Every structure is written in structure tokens, then in C-alpha cells.
Amino acid sequence: MIVKMYWNRANFLQCLLSLAISSLSFHQINGYDWRDPLGNITIRWDIISPTPDGYVAVVNITNYQKYRKVDAPGWKLSWRWAHKEIIWTTIGARVADQGNCRRFKKNVPTSCAKAPTILDLTADDDEVTQNQKIDGCCKGGVLLSRVQSYHNSTTAFQIAVGGEGSSNITWRLPTNYTFRTPHGAYSCSRARVVPNTRFISADRRRITQAM
Predict the structure, then answer these.
(1) What is the reported pTM?
(2) Domain of life of the organism in this record (predicted)?
């Protein structure tokens, strides 16, 4: 699916955006650059386990652009929930806005915002020093290009979502994804479903897939 999107700059550089999501587990957002027609920023959303009222997902963000990096103060990722979803916890990232959680008297979620915004952490943040991190996280929102550094062109965080039920029958895709950088912002239309992401274990003896 190809949709039109714009950089949020004064002169509004028009781009093309290609978007794909795999079975509630894979989000791909591709921003077009005429100097690098195959370059893109890919966001992969892998649901790794169900919970009593939702699921746990690992979100990977990878910069496949040759010439454009994401500088400090870094990226901001946001979307709009389809229903009354909440974010119980995040690891390796922070939710900028808590929203209205008044209906929760105990066990208050990290965020009840209808359109949450996710910020990256740095290695010096309190959450990280307390071992609240996952592999590949916590780079202060900075993403080098794939050519500059394979390791530093990608980042990850974990998110626990509630209010969705415990099976993929009740899970719903968020909408209105936006990826903001200091140089502009990408936005995209509704995602579509594609095949699930597959994972190979470190010893290459076992293959699993996202839900």
C-alpha cells in the first residue's frame, strides 16, 4: 500500500510512504528520499506473549536510509489506539503523557492516553541504571544510518498493552502512526496485515514467530 505523506517543514517536502504490518506484530514505515529511493525507517512491532488483558510486544526501529540520520534530541513515536487500550509498562523507553487514568484506583497504568507518545531513553536514565532495559535499547533517540553503523542504526523497546483481551481475535491495530525527528515528521494511513515475523534462536536450532 502506498500513501502520500509530508515532512513537517515550512516548505513541506512531499514524500511517498509504504506501510505494512504483520498480523498485529509487524509495523513498517518507509519514508522516501529522492537521493536514496530505497532508504526507509522501519518500525517492527512483534507481539511476543499474551497477558490477561492484552499483550507484550517488542518494538524495533531501524534506519535503513543511506544519508539521513536521526540526531539528538531524538525520535518520537506516536499512534492512536483503536479502542480503550492502555500501556501498563515500558522497558527501554518512556511514555511522554500519562493521560486520564482516573478509572483506575489501584495498579495505575503508565499511560491511559488515547494517542501516546514514546520517547527513547539514554544509558544514564534512572530506569536503565535499574536494569529496566532490553537488548538494543536506550540510545537517546539517536539513529545513525545503516551505512554509518549497523549497531547504532537500530533501537528497541518493550511495551505491555492492556484493555485488549488476551487473544489476537480481540487485539486491534492502532492507527495514525507518526514518527517525528528533529528534521521533520512522517505520518501514515491505516496499516494492513502481512505475514508474521519469524525469529531464529542464537544457536540457530529453534525458530519461533510473533503472534
Answers:
(1) 0.78
(2) Eukaryota
Which band of pLDDT confidence, cut at 50, 70 and 90, is reported for residue 92?
Answer: very high
> Counting beta carbons within 10 angstroms of the beta carbon of residue 115, is it exposed (0 to 12), middle (13 to 18) or buried (19 or more)?
middle
**Alpha helices per DSSP H over 121-197:** 126-129
Q: Is the dihedral of CA 154, 158, 159, 165 positive or negative?
A: positive
Q: Does a structural domain hold residue 196?
A: no
pLDDT digits (tens, 9 = 90+) for 177-205: 888 888 887 766 556 566 666 766 667 77
Strands 14-22 and 193-194: parallel
Question: Scanning the structure block, which residue is given the C-alpha cell 508474521?
Answer: 196
Q: Amino acid identity, residue 199? A: F
- Name the residue with cell 502506498: 2
Give the residue ranges of DSSP H helices in the chain.
126-129
For residue 92, give its domain range: 36-191
Element (H, E) at 113: none
Count: domains in the chain: 1
Question: 47 by DSSP, 3-state: which?
Answer: strand
In one-letter notation, the amino acid at residue 84 is K
- In angstroms, the CA 168 to CA 147 distance is 37
**180 CA to centre of own chain:** 12
Task: Tell me, yes or no, whether 152 lies in a domain.
Answer: yes
pLDDT at residue number 32: 57
User: Is 133 part of any domain?
Assistant: yes
CATH of the domain at 111: 2.60.40.290
